[in-house]
Each structure stands twice: as structure tokens, then as C-alpha cells.
Design goal:
This protein is α+β, with helices and mostly antiparallel strands and 365 residues long. It has helices at residues 22-30, 71-75, 98-111, 119-132, 210-225, 272-283, 295-304, 340-353, and strands at 12-13, 41-48, 52-60, 78-80, 83-87, 93-95, 146-155, 167-177, 188-193, 230-234, 242-245, 249-254, 259-262, 288-291, 307-314, 318-327, 330-333. Strand 12 (249-254) and strand 13 form a beta hairpin. The longest helix is centred in the middle third of the chain and has 16 residues, at 210-225. The mean pLDDT is 95. The structure holds 4'-deoxy-4'-aminopyridoxal-5'-phosphate.
């Protein structure tokens, strides 16, 4: 795609005078907890109907000043993204397929009637923040640590009428992230809920918008109440076809080597990890299928031995094996440990992200 001058934003850099001390930062980087601690700086840019995008900058991480009447607080007009920057053994820092997140941000913006951030500006914003806060990217020797990047866009206009807002804020914050599990990937338990759905046909399920996550929380609470760690949702009409697990896409490994993932139904988020797994699995010799798969096929397949492994994919948890499935009147153990196919795909993905193999696909920026 051609880049025009307005697609590349010139970020002003306002360095903070009181960054975290090296000791405080190192203490965070030694064992980061996902999403709880943030780097010294953040990106902000404003948009108004009259002026378009203006004042892009990297500035001190600080609370936002928004009106209590800001549209986002009442009508959820907001979108976000999630991706990671990885430090390689030579010290360099790389983002994984950020142009995919940029494209998804554009699609989400369209669905939520928000203005578009040019995709070069989106990637430029990530670059600007990571450049200023590079010391917050954990070192490569730490194993599976990275800097999680969270771009977002919110309707800031103080106006209670229901219409697309005339004032919007785009921002990026960053948070050091550790391995999702201290002891390496460990199979998690899944609660299959049919009492609520997270998304509906024609709704916003394929967009990365906060209200989808709000709609998923009672399902997660139901999972927790039933002793499970995560929740799996089915689609809204027949309540039969599998969609997603929490904030992850799902994959089923069959005894004959096939790998099946639910097709993008319109109410599923198209994961960057999902797309990458489909390619890597095919390279590893698997036949991959994107199609509808029912909760009954999952249960029957595990019982008969036809399904040998189940795993979930996402930026935060990378590839997470699923060990157990429970639902209101049943319970099924899939596996006590991480299966060989799950392990191989996980390793293939991490090897690329951490630069342990050549990036032949051009996935790193
Ligand atoms: N589904 C949902 C609902 C998500 O929030 C995420 C995380 N972004 C995913 C799937 C996985 O997407 P990705 O691989 O791009 O992180």
C-alpha cells in the first residue's frame, strides 16, 4: 500500500521528568503480572470532526481527563488492540505482525463508527512508544517475557445524544508481560456455557470492542463458580456451534492429524495468532480445516479418542492447552499434560516471535 504524508504521524516526544527508578523497573521486569504495571510513557492523539487527527505525542503515562459525559462511558463507543514486542538475543526489539492488528483496528473502527487511524500511523505509534520505553522490554534471557502493547480508541465527546462522537482519543499504553503460566504451559479447564453468548449475528463479535468483553463476564463468573478457569461460548442462534474461549480462539487436533478451528462466523474475533497457527500447522504437515464445529463433536470426539488435543490461541496466552471440559451436566478430561501437536505449534510460534529461527514469512517488524 502506498503511504501518504498524512498516514505517517510525527509524534512529539515529551519525556517525563520522573521516570521509574532502575530498581523499581527491574523489580517489575523480574516478575511482571499481566496488565497491572505500565511503562513510563504513553501515546495520545486527538480527533475531532473539524480537524481530523492532530497532536500525536508520546507523553508521561498518567490518568486521562475525560468528562463524566464522555460518550464512551455511556454508550461504549470504543475499540482496542493487543499485541506484543519481543526482545531478541541480540537486544533488538520486534513486534509480531503489527500490520494485522492495524487492519483489525481499522475494521473495528468501522464497525463502531469511529474514525480510522491510518495503518502506518498505528504501527508508527507502537514504534514511537517502544522506542521511548525500550528499557521496559524484558530481556531475551527471561524466557517468555515481552512488552504487551495496548492501543485503544475512545469517544471522548461530552454529549449524551446517541450518535457517533465528534471527539475521539487514540492512545497506546504498554505493560511488561511474563509467561502466562509460571510452570510453562499447563492444561486449563473450560466451562462450556450455553446460558449466555458473547456475540450475535450482525452484532460486534468480530470487532475488538469493550462491550463484547463486558458481555462475556457473566459466562466467566459462571465458569469460576463451577471450578473452571476459562469459558467457552457457542453462537447465539442454535447455541450449538463453538465460537471462542474467553479471549482466545480454539483448535481441535484429530487422531488422523487434522486440525479444526471454528470458521470466522462474523461473531468470532479473527485472531492474529489463529491465522498464524493455521499457517504453521499446515507447514508442520497438518490438514487444517476452518468450519463449524459443535460442542457435541468436541465431547464425542474426546470420548471416542478421535480428538486427541484441544488448545486455545491468543496474544496473551500464546498457545494454551485445554485439559478439561465441564458443562452443567457433565465433565470430560481431555489430557493431563500438553500434547505433542500443541507443543510443536507453540514452539514454532515462539521460535519466530523470539527470533530463534529466521523470519522467513516477514512476520516481524
Ligand atoms: N478472541 C478474542 C475474543 C480475543 O479478545 C482475542 C485476543 N485479542 C483473541 C480471540 C485472539 O486474538 P489474537 O490472536 O489476535 O490475540
Amino acid at each position: 500500500a502506498q503511504t501518504t504524508a498524512s498516514d505517517v504521524w510525527d509524534f512529539a516526544v515529551e519525556l517525563r521528568s520522573d521516570p521509574a527508578s532502575a530498581e523499581a523497573r527491574e523489580a517489575v521486569l523480574a516478575s511482571p503480572t499481566f496488565g497491572l504495571t505500565f511503562t513510563d510513557h504513553m501515546v495520545m492523539a486527538n480527533w475531532t470532526v473539524d480537524r481530523g487527527w492532530h497532536d500525536p505525542k508520546v507523553t508521561a503515562y498518567a490518568p486521562l481527563r475525560v468528562s463524566p459525559a464522555a460518550a464512551v462511558l455511556h454508550y461504549s463507543q470504543e475499540i482496542f488492540e493487543g499485541l506484543k514486542a519481543y526482545r531478541h538475543a541480540d537486544g533488538s526489539v520486534w513486534a509480531f505482525r503489527p500490520e494485522r492488528n492495524a487492519a483489525r483496528f481499522t475494521a473495528s473502527a468501522q464497525r463502531l463508527a469511529l474514525p480510522q487511524v491510518p495503518e502506518d500511523a498505528f504501527v508508527g505509534a507502537l514504534r514511537a512508544l517502544v522506542t521511548v520505553d525500550e528499557v521496559w522490554v524484558p530481556s531475551a534471557t527471561d524466557g517468555e517475557t515481552s512488552l504487551y502493547l495496548r492501543p485503544y480508541m475512545i469517544a471522548t465527546e461530552a454529549a449524551l445524544s446517541v450518535r457517533p462522537a465528534h471527539e475521539v482519543l487514540f492512545g497506546v499504553i504498554a505493560s511488561p508481560a511474563g509467561p502466562y503460566f509460571d510452570t510453562g504451559p499447563r492444561p486449563v479447564s473450560i466451562w462450556l456455557t450455553t446460558s449466555t453468548v458473547r456475540a450475535t449475528p450482525g452484532g460486534t463479535g468480530a470487532a475488538k470492542t469493550g462491550s463484547n468483553y463486558a458481555a462475556s463476564l457473566v459466562g466467566l463468573a459462571e465458569a469460576t463458580a463451577n471450578g473452571c478457569e476459562q469459558v467457552a461460548f457457542v453462537e447465539a442462534i442454535e447455541r450449538k456451534w463453538l465460537e471462542e474461549i474467553g479471549s482466545m480462539n480454539m483448535f481441535f487436533v484429530y487422531a488422523d492429524g487434522r486440525i479444526v478451528t471454528p470458521e470466522l462466523s462474523g461473531s468470532i474475533l479473527a485472531g492474529v495468532t489463529r491465522a498464524s497457527v493455521l499457517e504453521l500447522a499446515a507447514d508442520l504437515g497438518h490438514k487444517v480445516e476452518e468450519r463449524r464445529i459443535s460442542a457435541d463433536e468436541w465431547k464425542d470426539g474426546v470420548r471416542s479418542g478421535e480428538i486427541t488435543e484441544v488448545f486455545a490461541s491468543g496474544t496473551a496466552a500464546v498457545i494454551t492447552p485445554i485439559g478439561r471440559l465441564a458443562w452443567p451436566d457433565g465433565d470430560l478430561t481431555i489430557s493431563e499434560d500438553t500434547g505433542p501437536v500443541t507443543s510443536a505449534i507453540r514452539a514454532a510460534l515462539l521460535d519466530i516471535q523470539y527470533g530463534r529461527v529466521p523470519d522467513t514469512r516477514g512476520w516481524l517488524t
